[in-house]
Each structure stands twice: as C-alpha cells, then as structure tokens.
Amino acid sequence: MNYKTDILIIGAGISGCSLARELSRFKADVAVIDRGNDLAEGATKANSGIVHAGYDAKPGSNKARLNVAGAQMFPALCELLGVPYRQAGALVIALNGQDRAMLEALLERGLKNGVQQLSILSREEALAMEPRLNPELVAAMSVPTSGIVSPYELAFAMADDAAINGVRFFLNREAAEVCRTEDGFRVTAGPDVFECRVLVNCAGASAAAIHNDLTGDSLEMIHRRGQYYLLDHAASDVFSRTIFQCPSAMGKGVLVSPTVHGNLLIGPTAEDIPDPLDTATTQEGLDNILLTAKKTWPELNVRANITNFSGVRAHLAADDFLVGPVTGCPGAFEAVGIESPGLSSAPAIGRELAGQIADYLALERKSRLNDYPVPPKPFREMTDEEKAEACRRNPEYGSVICRCEVVTEAEVRGAIRRPVGARTIDGVKRRTRAGMGRCQGGFCLPRVAAILAEELHCDLSDIRKDGSDSFLVTGPLADPEERKTV
Amino acid sequence: MIFQDKVDLIIVGAGPAGLAAAIAARESGVSSLLVLERENEPGGILRQCIHNGFGLHRFSEELTGPEYAWRDIVRARELDIPILCSTTVLSVSKDRKVSFVSKEAGFRSVQAGAVILAMGCRERPRGSLCTPGTRCAGIYSAGTAQRFVNLEGWMPGKRVVILGSGDIGLIMARRMKLQGAEVLACVEIMPYSSGLNRNIVQCLEDYRIPLYLEHTVTNIVGRDRLEKVTISRVDSNRRPIPGTEKDFDCDTLLLSCGLIPENELTRGIGVELSAATSGAVVTEKLETSVPGIFACGNVLHVHDLVDYVSEESFAAGHAAAAYLKAGAAAASAAPENRIHVTDGPGVRGTVPQLIDPDPEADIRLMFRPSGVFRNSTAVVKSGETILMKKKAMIFTPGEMVSLSLPAARLADVVNGSIELSIERN
Amino acid sequence: MEQMVTCICCPVGCRMTVTLNESGEFVSVTGNTCARGANYARQECTAPERMITAVIPVSGSPVPLSVKTEKPVPKALIFEIMKEIRALNVPLPVSIGQVVCPNVLNTGVNIIATRGLS
After folding, report:
1. Is domain B333-425 given the CATH code 3.30.160 in the classification?
2. A261 is catalytic
3. How far is A350 from chain C (nearest CA, A)?
4. Closest chain B residue to C71 measured between Cα atoms?
5. Domain with CATH 3.50.50.60 in chain B
6. Does A171 lie in the same domain as A117?
7. Which helix (H) or strand (E) holds A72?
8. Which pLDDT value is given to residue A484?
9. Which residues of B touch A404 (CB under 8 A)?
10. Helix, strand or coil for residue A176?
C-alpha cells in the first residue's frame, strides 16, 4: 500500500507515542510505524521504570532540561491517562568517603538543574527511612520527587489517546529505506510505502542509522544492555523507595526499586553489545547484579524471583539526547540517543518536538478532542462493592483468567479492544498483567490465547507470544490428511 | 442457583482433594455445603492426566486420571453435592467469609461455618530457576504443555527438550513422542530422578530418550521462538561446570522442576504456613491455625499419589463435619497442649505438624526424605523413646513416606514433641 | 543371551539381568530382590506389554477425547496402534468406557473412551 501523510513518526516507543499524542492535538495527518509486533517493543518495555528527578544529568544538557521538565509532567499526565505512577521518592546511598563526595556533587548538580527538595541524610536518617539498607552506608541523598511508573503502559495509553484522535499506527513495518523527495520524504517499510512532509526519527536503537541516512553523518550508536531481576509481591515491602548506588561512567548503576505493581526490581547491568535486538540475559550479568545489589541490600535473596529480562539502551558517545530538527535536513526531526532519563523526559520530548513541527508546518490546534477512554480500574484494585457492580455491568468480570494477578476476562477482552489493542500474549500481559505473576502464565496462557483467537477470529496456531515468529503451538494434534485415510 | 448468605461448609476446589472432602463431609451428615471450582468442570488436574496409573491403592485397579476423577464426580452427584464451576474464590476471611465470582453469579460473599482449602498446586516457572537466555516462545511448564495437548488438542512443538525429570516431565516426554514430536533429552540437575522408576523405563527408555543426570539448562536461544538450548554438567553445588556445554536444536523446552502448593488464598487468610511444605501448618485433623479452616491435598503438601490425596481429603471432610457438629466450643486441645512434630535428619516437611495429645484415631504421618537413603529406617521418637520404626530398602525424595502412628503411643510423648528422622541401618 | 532390566515394581529399582536361550526363551534372572521383580523381568524380556493412552480430536467438541487400550498391548505395536488411534473419527456424544475401536490391530484389545463428551 501507498500511504500519504503529513507527518510520519518512525518508532512507537515512549518518545514516538508521546509525540504522536501531542501531534494529535493539531490538524494534521499523523502516522506511526514500528518494526515491532506491538507498541513499546524496544527499550520502553524493558527499563527500570523510574521517573528520575533530574539530579544526574549535566547542567545545560538536553538530558537535564528535558528530564526535569518531563518529570514535572508525570503526575498530571498519568492521572489523566490512568497510568500507574507513584512518587515513591529515592535514596542515593554512599558506601564510602568517595561516594559521600559524589553525593555533594549530585546535590549541587540537582540544584543547578532545578530539582526540588534534595537533601543529604546521615546514615541514621537513611536507615530510619529504609531499615533494610546496608548498615555500612555512610550517608544518602534523599530525592523525594523521584517516581516510579509502568513505562510500557504509559506508551500504550499515549498511543491510544493519539489513535482516538486520528493518528494511525502501523506495526511490523521496519523502515527499510528512507529517502528525500521533492516535498518531503518517502519511507519504505515492509509491504508499504509512506510519503510524508515531515519525518520524525524516534527509532530507538536504529535512530543513529536513520540520522546518518538523512544527514550523511557517521553518528555511532552504542547498544548498552541492562539485565534485571523482577521479584514477586512477596518481596515488595523490602524498600518503599528506589535505592540507587552512586552513578558511574556506565550509568546510574544497579538499583533496587519497588514497582508500581508491587514487585521489586533489581538491576540493570550495563554491557555494550553489538546487536541491539539481543535482549538475552546471561549468567555473568545476572551474577553481577546480585553481587552489586548486595551492597544495597545485604540480605538480598532471589527466591522470590519471577522473571529475568533485559533491555538495550540507545547510548550516544556524546552522552546527550539529540532532540529537535535534523541539522541540514528541513522537514526532518529527531529524538536520538534516548536512553535514561528517556522515560522521564518523554512527555517533554513529545511536547517540544510537536511544538517545533507545528511551527514548521504552520499547524492549527484542533478545537475539540475525543475524550481519552480511561481504562477502568483494575479488578484486583476494586472494593467488594465495586467488584459486584462491575460483574453486574459486565458478567465477564466474573471470569478470572489470571489467578496470580487476578485479571478477568472482561479486562483481557478490553485490552484487545483498546484503540491500539493487544494482538499477542505479551501484549495482553503488558496491558492487563495477565501472566505477570508468580506462575508466569502457566495457568492463564492457554486461556488468554483462546480469547485472543476468538477476538481476532483466528486459529490458536495464529497467536503469537510477542514477535511475529513467536508462535505458541505448531498445529493441531492430528494431521487432517492422516485422518482422511481411514 | 439460589444463593444463601450462609452455608455450613465451603470447599475451595473440585479436584480430587475437594471432591473427596465434599463426599466425606456429606457422608458425615453435612447437609449444607458448596464446592467452588475455577475450571469449567470438576476433576482438577486429573482431567489432563490421561495416562494410567491412578487408583491402585484406593480401587485396586489402574485408572487414567479422567477415570479416577469420574468416580468421585459420580459419587458427588449421587450425594447431590452442589459444585459451582467457572467460579473463582477471591478471598477467605479469618471468620470464614468466602468471596467469589463467576459469570453466572457475579460477585458473592457467603458466610461458611467451616472451610476446606483444596486448591492444589502449581508448577515452578522458569523465573524461579533464573535460567539465562532469551524470553522466546516455546518454553512451557510441562503441565501447560499437557493442557495444550490433552485438553485443547494442540501440539506445543516438534523438537522437545525437557528440564526436570519429575513425573509430569517424564509423562510429557512420552506424550510428545507418541504425538509425533522428537524428544531430544530429559535433563535433571540432581544425581537422581525424582520420577517413578516405571516412568523412567516406560516414558524415556522405551523411546530411547536420553536422561542427563547432574545437568541443567544454562542458556536459552531464540529471538521469537525457541531455537536452541544449551545444557551443562553441574558440580556438587549444582553450579554449571564451564566447558561441559552441549547444544540441542529444539523449538520447545518443557519445565518439570517441581510443584508448589498454591497458597495465595491461604496466605490472605493469615493461616500459618510451613516453610518445609509451603502449605499450611495443620493438626492431625487437617485443621489450620485458623479454627474451622482445613486444608488437604496438594495445597497442603505435594503428594505423589492421588490415592493419598483422596485419603487425606476424606479425613479433612470428616474432620470438618465433626467440627461443625460439635460447634466451635468443642474445639480440640488447647493449642499450648498440642504435640509438636518436627523434622529430624533425613526428613523434610512432615504433616501434620501438630497433634492433639488425646486423638480419636491413629495418626497418619507423611513426609518426604531429604535425599536417597538405602537400607534405612524411618524413626519416630520423643526424647529418647522410640515410638515407632519403619524399615525400607530405599527412601527417596520422589516417594513420600507414610507412617501410621498408633494413638496409644502418644502416651510416651515427652516435652510435647515428636521428631521424625531417617537412620541408616 | 543376557538382557538388563530396571525393575519398575517399587522405588528400589533393582537392576536385573535376565538370561535367555537362543530361541529367546526365559532361562533365569539375577539381581532381583523379590518375586514380583522376577516376574516382571521375565515378562519384560519375553513379551513386553504397555498400556497406551492418547487423545483424539472430536469434531464439534473443543475438548479432545481421551482414550486408552482396555488392556496392555504388545510394546512393539505402540506406534502402529497410535496411528490407528490418530485416524479415529468418533461422533458425539461419547460416554466414558465406550468402545471407540474394537479389537485394535487384531490384538483382541479394545480402545475405549476414558471420559465422556457431549
């Protein structure tokens, strides 16, 4: 197919979705393409889920400016979109004198970046706040404005909001060729060709390659993998805040943090790898996390581990985001090198780029928007009265699909029917938490697969776990040919 | 179905445990009871265990899982026991208020006089093994694969490696093979299989499927669907030995790495749980630390044989009926007078953990050996007094040991405690 | 001729050695610790038998039908019998115990349903 659009965004990660939502406020045709089989398939689905306060980035950098601006947008944005977010606060712990000096530097940097409420705590104050911390710590910096969020759920919500306001999403479309035309750009992606006046590069791991195609530059992307442990709810009360160690050249180090869903997250590692799609975990990486995290939490044990995963950050040697118009390439815009604090910055990145694009195309704002369909409160969080009412309204709430996380059939079907709905087992999992619990889908996977097949009017053998070749079953038990012979 | 706000007995789960408990309770005269089952038909895991080997002790014949379940289902029907299927219990309170949902009934809260927990167990998932690699499709617990094949009619894959040599893994090796898949290896981290010899012979050896003892999966490869697993030999600390890697090209990895009693509801009630069994701490009447709440079957401790699940659950049903009849006032011994049963050397997870000093019947003690012991004796002691002994040519972790301690022997208990151990002859 | 057999009668799992003469007839067994084991070894080396259980798809039912051989069948016939089972087309309804394939491969053994389907 040939598609014409005013604006084409390459990449449906957190930056692309944020931008799509902001652009949906303007009178323009907007399309988003992504190589994944779902939204948020890159770094967005596999990171720490921290809304950083903004003390870490170098003052004056894009990272510092967009982080602080973005983080301030989170409470209202997540409230509006019904995305799980909590300003849990954070502690950065110092384990020796050198770390202690680093805290002072971080505090000073934070003040310069405009971060509020930072303070240095004594060992005793820190231990009083988080009694499970390593008692050998010497001091800590308190960061009350640090938050935790479900990153992919934010991307889904922003995409849904964009979609009901006219943005079109095309999945399984990898931008194979990007070229300039007389009045814009032409992008070949899978079976389709997209022509647009404005092209926005939010392509995550592939963003440097697209940047180089457009500019002739030789920007180098460093693919930095981070591995994690995710522990069960049983470990959720260990820390009530995100606990960082002092940052190093490779990033913010290993953190131990509660998640918005009541799990405990430990990680990430920081390994530079050649293949950005290599999201495997390794024994060495997992061992390293434990070794390092024990400095934060000496009694650490991973008996309650429910899964390990890894994500790959798009790191630029210059150690800053490239955000804005592409130099020397009118009509092209970009968000390149969006690693940490990319999630925290995403709302600001979207708003800033949308403003620049609206100016470039002289776009008018829409006079009215379609209301965002705020997802109903999850069944597991409802009071008994609310549960009863939900079941009366929709009997499918009475059918529990995922035991561990208490997810109902109504919610699974709801996730599939969202504007940019789930099409895969993992898509349902990330939208509803079915399969996120301690049994890791052992019980609910066949049920979710059956509902997907029913909703999508297809066979169970057409259902995928995640990527386009991640089939669940190889076929029916009996070979139909064989059965006819008798 | 018309719901009442009050029911004498609620049984959570209509698998073999729940069915047996319900039958026993009804036969003991409980007229108002309700069985709640989350699946769309009763029978529990037996529905998908289509192989034979069930019921030898109880019925003196070898039945398949569905046939074994059918006998209890028929009996429950004869006794007019109401079983609500497709119904999920959301919570049970300490004062035995049970909240549940179903499409038909919506959200309900029913006050029960007594509750029997019979939710069964679930499989250990990959996450708990911390196996590195990718998170591709094609990695299933053996039970999930069994469900796909036996209850839904789908083949999960064509080239299979099995991690863990528990009985479900062995059974699935044969199932996959008989349905036309290649089964490349069965990999066991321990130096012995936890499965029955019969299954080793009839599920692996019959089909020349190699069993790799003291090996584990150390890498999982495949972006979308599984493409390869690496196995390695492990040392005596069960850590992989570098340089011993062996690759298998496969599209399916089945995990049969142990079962965990499913005690989320139990935890929510505030019932005391045992670290050794991951199930509730119970008395010889199968009563938990919360009066009027009983537990039986695999939710209490993972059994090897369904026959013993049924036996234990009959006992729970009778005990719940007696509890209802006597009223709370007639509760058994004051907690401080109870005899504590503890695990000694070679013994893990003895059930029950508490015994009334003046029990009505002999005590069934069950535990799992902590290792393989040849020519040894299971000993029940109190202080220096030996209460009973049972010799065996072999004790293995794969086979639960069941002892019947005569009630009269409790007269010799000192300091209110009993210890079980395995001693070499 | 000697043949090794692992006993399946109990958890001890004795490794037994069975001696057979030239025509494959049983001569003796060693390594067993009980008579049950000896009987098993003899049977296993001269005429091994197995139960077969399987499921077959049934049109009109989302749940396949579980079936079994009513009695053990010769081990050598497992795959051939599986082929017969896979080719079965059983109409609904089916009741538990119903014969779905009489005298499979002339073994004198019926294949029967182990559950009902309606």
Report:
1. no
2. no
3. 48
4. B62
5. 1-123+259-332, 125-257
6. no
7. helix A62-81
8. 46
9. 264
10. strand
Residue A185 domain-assigned? yes
Query: Residues of C numbered 27-86 whose beta carbons fall under 8 angstroms of chain B's beta carbons: which are they?
Result: 33, 50-55, 57, 62-64, 66, 68, 75, 78-79, 82
| Domain hosting residue A291, numbered range | 86-147+224-312
The sign one gets for the Cα dihedral B389, B392, B398, B404 is negative
The Cα–Cα gap between C101 and C112 comes to 7
Averaged pLDDT, A203-222: 96
The pTM assigned to this predicted structure is 0.95
Phi-psi group of B148: left, alpha or beta (phi > 0 → left; psi -120 to 50 → alpha; rest → beta)? alpha
Mutate to test the interface with B, among C4, C53, C63 (most CBs of B within 10 A): C53
Domain count, chain A: 3
Report CA torsion sign: B4, B8, B12, B14.
negative
pLDDT (tens digit per residue) in A69-99: 999 999 999 999 999 999 999 999 999 999 9
Average pLDDT over residues B316-320: 97
Task: Please give the interface size between A and B, counted as residue pairs whose CB atoms are below 8 Å apart.
Answer: 154
Q: CB contact, 8 Å: B145 with chain C?
A: no
Q: What is the CATH number of the domain that holds A204?
A: 3.50.50.60
Tell me how far apart the alpha carbons of residues A394 and B101 are, in angstroms, rounded to a whole number.
12
- Confirm if B99 and B108 have CB atoms less than 8 A apart: yes
Shared domain check, A140 and A99: yes
Q: What is the pLDDT of residue B277?
A: 96
Mutation target among C81, C86, C105, C111 for the A interface, most CBs of A within 10 A: C86
Q: Which residues of B touch A461 (CB under 8 A)?
A: 154
B198–chain C Cβ distance below 8 A for any pair: yes
Q: Is the pLDDT reported for residue B330 higher than 70?
A: no
Q: Identify the pLDDT of residue B131.
A: 94
Judge whether A96 lies within some domain. Answer: yes
Q: How far apart are CA A12 and CA A373, in angstroms?
A: 20
User: How many H-runs (helices) and E-runs (strands) does chain C carry?
Assistant: 2, 9
When pLDDT is averaged across residues B107-129 and rounded to a whole number, the result is 94
Over residues B61-90, the mean pLDDT reads: 97
pLDDT tens digits, one per residue of A8-34: 999 999 999 999 999 999 999 999 999
Task: Report DSSP state, residue B234.
Answer: B
Question: Mean pLDDT score of chain A, rounded to an integer?
Answer: 95
For residue range A93-123, list pLDDT tens digits in order: 999 999 999 999 999 999 999 999 999 999 9
- With an 8 Å Cβ cutoff, are A470 and B104 in contact? no
pLDDT given for residue A486 in this prediction: 40
CATH number of B125-257: 3.50.50.60
Whether residues A385 and A434 share a domain: the answer is: yes
Q: Do A200 and A334 contact (CB within 8 A), yes or no?
A: yes
C89 with A483: Cβ contact below 8 A: yes
- Examine residue A323 and state whether it is found in any structural domain, yes or no: yes
A258 and A370, same structural domain? no
ipTM of the assembly?
Answer: 0.94
Which tens digits make up the pLDDT trace of A477-486?
A: 866 555 544 4
